[in-house]
Design goal:
Blueprint lengths: L1 H12 L3 H10 L1 H11 L6 H18 L8 H20 L7 E2 L2 E2 L11 H20 L2 H12 L4 H8 L3 H20 L1
Helix pairs in contact: 1-2, 3-4, 3-5, 4-5, 6-9, 7-9, 8-9
């Protein structure tokens, strides 16, 4: 199967539209298994499958065999993070969401800030800034782009002209280092 996928990829890169269609059909089970594993929403299956095809086509365009990664592995990673990102977006709670006898917004406290909370927040910010300064330039850029600027892993990879997986590794290493610094 791997050999066939590599052949279809080669033919697709040379402009063979039928090979590209066959490649998408061959990877359909991978899309479905990724949906089931990372974002199992039966009510959105058709849309999620289309997103999977879109992700594969994007992976097809961005795939660079000289980086030492197999195409199938690259596609699996792209699909995984696409659906995980979608899952993360879904976790945000709307202020109008029903909760018990009222809406979520009804349970929120006022906007007054407790002086102790303000002091703690300032101290936390200082510790975080100190920790960020101890990261490498690339780790700091990836962490800031992802958590502060709200860029996706894919957008960061494109911006820095590095592979998707490299961004994931840099982010993981940066967070691990930041955690050690903050825990001290």
């Amino acid at each position: 199967m791997y050999q066939e996928i590599e052949e279809l990829l080669f033919l697709s890169k040379r402009g063979d539209v039928r090979a590209k269609e066959k490649l998408l059909l061959k990877l359909n089970p991978l899309i479905i298994s990724s949906i089931r594993k990372y974002y199992n929403r039966l009510d959105q299956y058709d849309d999620l499958i289309q997103e999977g095809y879109k992700t594969i086509l994007l992976a097809f365009e961005e795939y660079d065999p000289t980086k030492g990664v197999k195409f199938l592995g690259y596609v699996k990673t792209m699909l995984k993070y696409n659906y995980l990102e979608k899952y993360k977006e879904r976790q945000h709670l709307s202020l109008n969401s029903q909760m018990g006898d009222g809406e979520f917004i009804d349970f929120l406290e006022g906007f007054e800030k407790d002086p102790m909370d303000v002091a703690l927040k300032k101290e936390e910010s200082e510790i975080l800034l100190k920790g960020l300064k101890e990261l490498t330039k690339k780790q700091r850029q990836v962490v800031v782009d992802y958590y502060i600027n709200g860029l996706s892993i894919q957008e960061i990879a494109h911006k820095l002209n590095i592979s998707y997986r490299t961004v994931v590794n840099i982010k993981t290493q940066g967070l691990s280092k930041l955690k050690k610094i903050i825990v001290k």
